[in-house]
């Protein structure tokens, strides 16, 4: 980390240069208008300064042409900000299909991170350089926010739902993680580091850790442990919907509404099974709220996702995403 | 230079020409009446937004948890709700008659109709208290050993949170309304309101009708949405 | 308006003793039971000045803590309470009432040639309600404070914080009704109490901007009131409206909160814009350039301001399409603000510009508000907001608007109307010096925070990484200069009440109706109801020049 007196944040993700370019464009336009107004005020103030106490300057009639000009020209300029900014924002909310999946739970006041392979870490996030990483984030208590300035990436982490964010690190190094949404006493201590590593080093790190089983197989264990398979089964004895191939599909709810079975819906169906009941099933499933931790829920979600091959990701803008739970190959 | 006058001195200055009810800073009774009436309308606009926050929360959750809300709604007492709706509609009628009586100079009728409106408002609040008592007994008060049979307990708790917030806020407005009516009755007993001056009766009537209209929205949204089930 | 003649500068001869609103009656009771809008304005002036310095004290402690990266001056929870109380007090108990309740109350009846506001008793009630709300909040401060941030985000405020959330929320709830009643009073007064001949397009722009502000008071304040009520019942009785464990939505709170709190920014800055319109015209001796555009820009800001709340939630998880719409609308609301800035600048063209203290504040306002407004565009731009959201960039931006804009306008207005309010002239040299100190101190405090924010320093951080220290030290140094700058007017204005030279009726040669009556004015404002025959800002009796 270069200490000292930086005036500009490091660029360490594929998104960072794009955000910075737009920022410089905004700066340039702002500088132009601020200077224009400041110079006009100073020029008028000096040129037309009061020379005698009794002088009366002529009145001035307004000018429609000028009013239109200084309404429409700024408006058109702001449209360029709008289109550019919106394009970037959509890209930020559209994770690439082959992204590495990492699950993060925020709680007062730490970040708990699980890799698909089962590696766990706290307040440290190890990722390979040059590979898109998709984060699924949730909170155990209050709203947090996962912010990596060097990646120009920030996402609120809201309890009761899943948020997604993604980045592709471009430079190895250690970068700050901040909690950017005020979350209580130790808010400013809810910080950490992203360690961006060479792909090979990352593989070694993954292999050398304590994680024994993948997230999906941990989820499978939970699934069996809570006897979910008594009802959720593919045969005719099933009293709950079959979960195989479910993820990413559109399901019809009672009352005719439809919903995409994404991570958030699966989570909600475990903690509040009857809020959005699939058509044709009875509201018989008990709630598992308080029985399964947020991390356990993420493992179950990972397991249910692993039951679907090539499931599309419904988070943000629908995009197909490759299942990556058992991924072991070296990243590109 | 005008005569110096203490701002704390309550009554209008003697120098001011015009009826007794005309306050010193207005020029004419008409201006004073316009101001009072506009003031009450503006106030009612703020009231709409005040209730609007709760209506928005209701709309969001009802669209999300339609079935749960319908189930929860079935546990409200529809006969008491209907009775109270009728009570309030009649009270609006008596309030309107009070305004009409004032504007036509029937000073005794003003008093009678104001008292009738107050009584009906009191009946409404009494019935509401009975309903609240039932909910308390049935463990339907959120946060207080809330128990709801069936699969929708959590969402029903949201429904009952909104139920108590919305009807509670409405009841608070009823209490304020009865307070206003009490003040009017005290003045009406002195025969204060007649064709020349009945603005207080008129603007209080606007308020009373507004509170009724809020109930006209609350009643179907809270009591009637579950009736089609079973 | 009716006196277009240029009055001479303050005359030296003393004014003979005269009965005015200040000396008409004496005693505490004559103030606490007054219905005179001018006295009520002074009651507000005293109360909000107290809260300004209390909020400023918290700001000072925040800046002292941030001198060093480690959290070594106060503990983290104390720090969290400091920034919360700073925000709550400055927003709800200083900025929102500041210009409307003091200058608006004092001036609107005089500017429209009325004896008082439409509902004088309601006006006094507003002040009492404000004081009751303030008492609740002060109670919370004294008994250990509150640590939720002024935004009260759920579920932290409802389920996690163990501080005095309810007392503070109730205080703000109560004070909200003070705002509502003030707004209601202004709307009715402006509609029904204008002097003969005073048509809508002859109203001073100060009145227009207060009309727009009042619309926001009346339409937005009830929403924050009911929202805080929901937070309070959720906390007190464990109702579950925003509770995620019941399936409730904490983001719904943010929608409701910002539906008020974004328009609230315009409650703070619109009245300051009204003040600046008066200052620029008076000290340029010009009619305002594009009167109708400036007037309607106020209304435009008030209306559009209601449609942009979602730009506070670009990273909260609302749909990307909602983000897109809110981004577009946020750019639209920037246009009327830009129109105002351009028109003020154009007003100076070919004027007769005097550098009296109020005009220095107007210059300061134009410059700082321009920077605040332009950086607002960064935040409306979705792709950039993701990075700077909840960092010091935001902190810098809204202080440029609220402090650089609203407080500059407020101080400019206080100086401008001080001769009318107090009947005394303030010491000009000191006042100019203070204005300069405030301007320099302000920029040194907040400009470094833009850089800090883009570097990634999050707001509400008690401790921070060491590489941010240099900029934080600059900011703290600026804050101490700014503090001195704010103390100076406090001292010399109070001094002037006793030792200042007596002010003539119209020391600036202004055309406003409020200058048509003695300083200080009599209780009933005007000996006879004025009749208005001229356009506003009628400084040039002769020819009118057409430009553009």
Nearest-integer average pLDDT of chain A: 85
Structural class of chain A: alpha+beta
Structural class of chain C: mainly alpha
Total of DSSP H or I helical runs spanning 4+ residues of chain C: 15
Order of helices and strands of chain A: HEHEEEEEEEEEEHHEEHHEE
Count the E strands of chain C: 1
The topology string of helices and strands of chain C comes to: HHHHHHHHHHHHHHHE
Spans of at least 5 consecutive residues with low confidence of chain C: 1-16
Q: What percent of the residues of chain A sit in helical stretches (DSSP H or I)?
A: 25-40%
Largest sheet of chain A: 5 strands, mixed
Determine Rg of chain C (CA atoms, Å): 23 Å
H/I helix tally of chain A: 6
Going across the biggest sheet of chain A, name each strand in turn: 4-3-2-6-9
Shape of chain C: globular
Query: Which regions of chain A have little confidence, pLDDT < 50, spanning 5+ residues?
Result: 310-332
Q: Biggest interface in this structure?
A: A-C, 97 and 108 residues
Question: Can you describe what's shown?
Answer:
The complex is a heterotrimer of chains A (332), B (230) and C (548). In chain A, a hairpin with a 5-residue loop joins strand 14 and strand 15 (319-320). Chain A has helices spanning 16-47, 64-92, 199-208, 215-225, 263-271, 294-306, and strands at 59-61, 100-107, 110-115, 120-122, 124-128, 132-139, 144-148, 153-157, 163-168, 173-179, 192-197, 250-252, 258-260, 312-313, 319-320. In chain A, helix 1 (16-47) packs antiparallel against helix 2 (64-92). With 332 residues, chain A is α+β, with helices and mostly antiparallel strands. Helix content of chain B is 71%, strand content 0%. Chain B contains six helices and no strands. Chain B has helices at residues 29-64, 66-73, 78-103, 107-137, 153-189, 199-224. In chain B, helix 1 crosses helix 2 (66-73), helix 3 (78-103) packs antiparallel against helix 4 and helix 4 runs antiparallel to helix 5 (153-189). The longest helix of chain B is centred in the last third of the chain and has 37 residues, at 153-189. The N and C termini of chain B lie far apart (80 Å). Chain C starts with 27 loop residues before the first helix and ends with a strand. In chain C, helix 3 runs parallel beside helix 13. The longest helix of chain C is centred in the first third of the chain and has 36 residues, at 76-111. Chain C is built from 15 helices and one strand. Chain C is an all-alpha fold and 548 residues long. Chains in contact: A-B, A-C, B-C. At the A-C interface, helix 1, strand 1, helix 2, strand 8 and strand 10 of A face helix 3, helix 5, helix 8, helix 9 and helix 10 of C. Strand 1 (59-61) of chain A pairs parallel with strand 1 (544-546) of chain C.
